[in-house]
Amino acid sequence: MKIIVCVKQVPDTSGKVAVNPDGTLNRASMAAIINPDDKNAVEAALTLKEETGAEVVIVSMGPPPAEGMLREILAMGADRAVLVSGREFGGSDTFATSQIIAAAINTIGVDKEDIILCGRQAIDGDTAQVGPQIAEKLGLPQVSYVAEIKKEGDSLICKRMLEDGYMTIKVKTPCLLTCIKELNTPRYMSVPGIVDCYSKPLEIFDFNKLKDDPLIELDTIGLKGSPTNIFKSFTPPQKGAGMMLEGADKETCQKLAGILAGKHII
Ligand SMILES: Cc1cc2nc3c(=O)[nH]c(=O)nc-3n(C[C@H](O)[C@H](O)[C@H](O)COP(=O)(O)OP(=O)(O)OC[C@H]3O[C@@H](n4cnc5c(N)ncnc54)[C@H](O)[C@@H]3O)c2cc1C
Question: Whose CA is nearest to atom 45 of ligand 1?
Answer without folding.
Answer: 8
